[in-house]
């Protein structure tokens, strides 16, 4: 009896000690979480999206699942004709590619790229874009053609490659890269001249995320490698006639397959303004493919900011600006960007009305989770696509999902018609 009487207070003290220890450790964790921004952002992210998931009802989930299913069908059909060619991702026999320059009539110059000019041309009655490299940039031309001809690299949100060729002008040799033509030009051009509505903003962001997600992911079986872009910016995103977007300019892209990274010989970094903090401060892991993907996502955050900046009513929206316009000039150096982004820890300006707006507020959080300093805390392209779908559903915009379904069905019809048209032309 005496032994039992002595153990009762001992157990009570032990329980009190354990409870106190747990409370103390939890308090330390909360303080650390509040000080540590990536951890705080991670907690907020899951809390926020957990709440969003509870808002989405069964009907909205069905809509989003339908979009996913049709998207997979569209991707499959986009790549269906690859098996009928010599292996190029374009779907064109190599013989046709080598003679196509003779059949194209150049009309006017429509842009300047890093390695050459971009022209509007006509091929058998249809408009095409012709990117012309000089012979001294043959390595860059070869790399971009090589990436475009990657097996299964066909997607509605990637610029459609048609062919490559060279042309003797008499004084020099031009290297041609022929792609589909988009009248609205780049996202940079479009936002410079136009204001976008909130639904269009979400559609643009979603389409870019879908295209990048397709690039970033490896496909087993037929063996499409994972690809990181390395030079994402609004000038390298084109706007389609339905105001969705396609990703272009793969000349600096990195491929990853079977655990091996294939980096281009002209291993220039991307555009300085859009470089991730870890690239600017030399902490980038060049041998880790995930590092290239997270650097792409930082650039996506800046592109989202550009779209948000031009979203709203014509009277209230400010003129188009590039990210960090308030702290660097039009052509910043690496040192200037490092000071702004890494030392001063700055990010593009957040407009006050975004904070209290239901639509813009959700996109703002998504954007900030893309450009966060810690690469491992950034959203993936697939995360962004899903976040847009959840956000659209949570504010009752089922029309976004329905638009994607209708658009994907039209994509499927276009693919089938294009296949018939191309086959007919090649036989002419």
UniProtKB/TrEMBL annotation:
It comes from the Eukaryota. The keyword S-adenosyl-L-methionine does not apply. Its EC number is 2.7.11.30. InterPro entries: GS_dom, Kinase-like_dom_sf, Prot_kinase_dom, Protein_kinase_ATP_BS, Ser-Thr/Tyr_kinase_cat_dom, Ser/Thr_kinase_AS, TGFB_receptor. It is a single-pass type I membrane protein. One of its GO terms (biological process) is cellular response to growth factor stimulus. Coiled coil: none annotated. Keywords: ATP-binding, Kinase, Membrane, Nucleotide-binding, Receptor, Serine/threonine-protein kinase, Signal, Transferase, Transmembrane, Transmembrane helix. ATP binds at residue 131. Residues 104-394 form the Protein kinase domain. It is found in: Membrane. Residues 71-103 form the GS domain. It is an enzyme of class 2 (transferase). The keyword ATP-binding applies. GO terms for cellular component: plasma membrane; receptor complex. PANTHER family: RECEPTOR PROTEIN SERINE_THREONINE KINASE (PTHR23255:SF71), TRANSFORMING GROWTH FACTOR-BETA RECEPTOR TYPE I AND II (PTHR23255). Belongs to the protein kinase superfamily. TKL Ser/Thr protein kinase family. TGFB receptor subfamily. This is receptor protein serine/threonine kinase. It comes from Onchocerca flexuosa.
